[in-house]
Write a structure and sequence with these properties.
Length: 248
């Protein structure tokens, strides 16, 4: 039985007052014990958010531990704040900052070395799905960034399938489309990293997930919760998503 996750990616949104207002409301909320809730605020707020009952993660890190890398933040620094999770490979990082599968492999290594759980995002673009290349794209992302890990290391990560055409667009993958990829990925992991790893690894869905479509998605046997963008900025919607997840 895999414990479900509801993770909120705030991206580059919310000024200090807005961020702490949302954070404080979430902090005071009692969450169901069968669901892990994690929020990913902008990194400038992290140091004031980590000593809380609420799980807090970073949206990005750099693979080097220190040095002349102006503007970057290392996994070691995040760890020293008490950060337990970090997103890796979000499609916006791949698109806007040209992060490659090989770059992401280094970030995953740095995070695991600092005992931070990488939440590794992967997913195809619209034209790749339309040209029926989505399975190959997803396999390449996973193999090039993650398959150097031992089975033990692999079991420490969380995956998030986020079809690029569904992120922030209002278009959601249907439950059938999402479940098909999640099962495909889980089978691929079973073949390469063993059945125990495949059965225990949590694979989230992300892409325009909201209270109106979450139940259908989270009922799928291989979808273990959601990575939520826009709806995680609205307290009531995020709470509804947690509630829906916990009742499945
Ligand atoms: C995301 O950014 O990870 C995401 C899923 O965004 P949205 O829910 O807004 O599509």
């Amino acid at each position: 039985m895999r414990k479900k996750i509801v993770a909120g990616n705030w991206k580059m949104n919310l000024n200090k007052a807005e961020a702490f207002d949302l954070f404080n409301r979430l902090k005071q909320t009692k969450f169901p014990s069968n669901t892990d809730v994690i929020v990913f605020p902008p990194s400038v707020y992290l140091s004031q958010m980590t000593d809380s009952v609420l799980n807090v993660g970073a949206q990005n890190c750099y693979h080097q531990s220190n040095g002349a890398f102006t503007g970057e933040i290392s996994a070691e620094m995040l760890s020293s704040l008490g950060v337990k999770y970090c997103l890796v490979g979000h499609s916006e990082r791949r698109e806007c900052f040209n992060e490659t599968n090989k770059d992401l492999a280094k970030k995953v290594d740095a995070l695991l070395a600092s005992n931070i759980t990488p939440i590794f995002c992967f997913g195809e673009k619209l034209e790749e799905r339309e040209n029926n290349k989505h399975h190959q794209v997803v396999l390449n992302q996973l193999t090039e960034s993650l398959f150097h890990l031992s089975s033990d290391q692999f079991s420490k990560i969380v995956l998030a399938y986020e079809p690029v055409w569904a992120i922030g667009t209002g278009k959601t993958a249907s439950a059938i489309q999402a479940q098909e990829i999640h099962l495909f990925v889980r089978n691929f992991i079973a073949e390469n990293k063993g059945i125990d790893v495949a059965n225990s690894i949590r694979i989230l869905y992300g892409g325009s997930c909201k209270p109106s479509n979450a139940e259908e998605l989270f009922l799928c046997p291989d979808i273990d919760g959601g990575l939520i963008g826009g709806a995680s900025l609205v307290y009531d919607d995020f709470i509804k998503l947690i509630d829906i997840t916990s009742k499945i």
